Amino acid sequence: MNEFELIERYFNWVSYHSVDLSVGDDCAIIDTNSNTQIVTSVDTLIEGVHFSQNTSAADIAYKALAVNLSDLAAMGATPKYFTLALTLPELNEPWLSEFSESLKHLAEEYQIDLIGGDTTKGALSITINIIGEVETGKALLRSGAQVNDLIYVSNTIGDAAYAWQQIDQGNKPSDFYLNRLNRPKPNVELAQQLVGVANACIDISDGLEQDLSHILSRSKVGANIDIEAIPLSDEVATYIDTTQDWCVALAGGDDYELCFSVSKEKINKVTLIEKELGITLTNIGVVTKSQGLKIKGLDKICQSYQHF
Amino acid sequence: MNEFELIERYFNWVSYHSVDLSVGDDCAIIDTNSNTQIVTSVDTLIEGVHFSQNTSAADIAYKALAVNLSDLAAMGATPKYFTLALTLPELNEPWLSEFSESLKHLAEEYQIDLIGGDTTKGALSITINIIGEVETGKALLRSGAQVNDLIYVSNTIGDAAYAWQQIDQGNKPSDFYLNRLNRPKPNVELAQQLVGVANACIDISDGLEQDLSHILSRSKVGANIDIEAIPLSDEVATYIDTTQDWCVALAGGDDYELCFSVSKEKINKVTLIEKELGITLTNIGVVTKSQGLKIKGLDKICQSYQHF
User: Fold this and answer.
1) ipTM above 0.90?
2) What is the pTM of this model?
């Protein structure tokens, strides 16, 4: 099978948006609109780093797209298109079929188009470049946090890191934790509701401590957070209670929950969003004038995810 | 060094265009214009497939960006932005420094912005997603070839494949051929001049035979080309004369020259472009009604580059 046939068979889907041509020419062409800005981000998933050798093709495809959707979500943008650079050690058709089905399923859920790609032979690696739109000037940035803003996180933190740890120790995590690791739900809808409400926003991919610190440094502010306020799922709470290993929540990353800051005047809107979406948004601290992140209750330094 | 420091040190450059924020937030934001369309493409380079283990970081960076510029060129688009997904086996600072300098140098030449990226640990792999603009409706497509159009290629064909072959056989190609392999010049200016002149265009990355066939199938036409008309550099001409190995020109790829079709009424414009840019544009055949590609003078089947 040549690349062209591979694309035709596995990656030639329908279009939701105005794409003049997608797979089948040198480039894809996208119509633009003067009221919107294009928002784009890229993420690579590597075997052994972002997923284990036992991870299914379906889970890999899901996560590769989900983490990119999460980056767009953190900007309050609407995802529209993506390109896929897929490097495979061999042409494994059952694997490709499972991969493309899963990718297509998630793409359909968010109504986004696969508009281009490249397939190469090599160590398994998936790079997705996602492209979305946001109303001009409305994007949620890391740089907008204001002193006295309240800091929130969505849902529970540390579940994916806890699942990784279980797998590392030879245990099989329960479905809930496996899903948190392999099928993180991108908070696209939440982020869109936060446009005009949150002053700053980031998705927690590398760990709460590290990612919140990005907001703080970009906004030139500091923060105090209370470790006891961090929302935890039951097993993670029990695990931390037993081991005092708070780093699983502070430095774990990979949950792709959102961390955002909101002025006190708008916290009623946060409550409304919480109810409307049926999710939990938890205030874990406050933005301060003095720079740096102070974590009340933590007596050690956690090692957040490092790319090298 | 964490990823943030790595980006700051090696990949935080100036902006040429209206990019609200680039490296430093979840996504980059691009202003759009209602008179233009966004054009995007992605290509991955893998060690052992697209470059040898001895290739310098500078050459790898150059080629990774050049092949993407070439894809945009094939559409007649103006390159503006790119994202970089870089997978490295280790954090090698001299390598990174050389890589980023070379990438920056080429980016400056075309005045394009690096607007996002991801760095991961793994087998060496470089994925660049390039984004450009084209006036709405003006892109050069593969699908526009008309019966009786003349088929042209730019410069000479087969040089990169010949260089690969020399390296494979343990010979050191001369600088001209090494540059044709490692430093292909993207035909951005040529393609922009071809807007409104050419009916169809593609860049020859996988081999003339295969890439021209993409034009033919997308345009639902055929072609007759004359093997003796294919423009060859001196050493390649001598090599083919000796070996009759025409496949080096027909199936080699990797030169990133353009193949395009032009109606007979417009061939004077091709001559003008040739003079203005000081390049050679050679008519190698004609578009026919009967489908398929007929190659006069070829008595064997070449194996074009296959991704698997």
Assistant:
1) no
2) 0.86
